[in-house]
Design a protein that fits this description.
This protein has five helices and no strands. The protein is an all-alpha fold. The N and C termini lie far apart (about 75 Å).
Length: about 150
């Protein structure tokens, strides 16, 4: 029988417990924060363009703001600080075009949050974000359905 190698055991432990789905990288959290803040900016810009669907757009913007705050909190827990990203002003574009683009991004975020729901450290947070994200995708699809009559 081979003698116990504590260094090898520590390396194996580290490899097993740093799962490939682990979401503890500050750059990844920063990129996610930027994406959420950009979506919030688009929804707020669309809100200024139209009053017809103001309640839905305001709700979407507020939800993105809350999600961004959550990711910012995870970033602070991970890295100790979190600089606020610089958000460029969204370009003016037709509402349906902007919403289609946002819908694609929101669907990707939904998959992303679902994937990280199994994270050993932050899984419950991502699980809640995934559930909320499904509702956001549903709201966007309904809004697009109303606009495209």
């Amino acid at each position: 029988m081979d003698p116990y190698d504590s260094e090898k055991a520590a390396r194996v432990w580290q490899r097993v417990h740093s799962a490939p789905n682990s979401f503890h990288s500050a750059p990844e959290l920063s990129a996610l924060l930027l994406q959420l803040r950009q979506l919030e900016a688009v929804y707020r810009a669309l809100l200024r363009q139209t009053a017809a669907h103001g309640a839905v757009l305001r709700s979407l913007a507020d939800r993105k703001h809350a999600q961004a705050a959550c990711i910012r909190g995870l970033h602070i827990l991970t890295a100790g600080s979190c600089p606020e990203p610089s958000i460029p002003h969204p370009k003016p574009e037709p509402i349906s075009t902007a919403l289609r683009r946002c819908c694609t991004i929101e669907m990707q975020l939904s998959s992303h949050f679902d994937l990280h729901s199994a994270d050993p450290a932050c899984g419950p947070v991502f699980s809640d974000l995934a559930a909320e994200q499904r509702q956001i995708c549903r709201s966007l699809a309904a809004l697009l359905g109303q606009l495209e009559r």
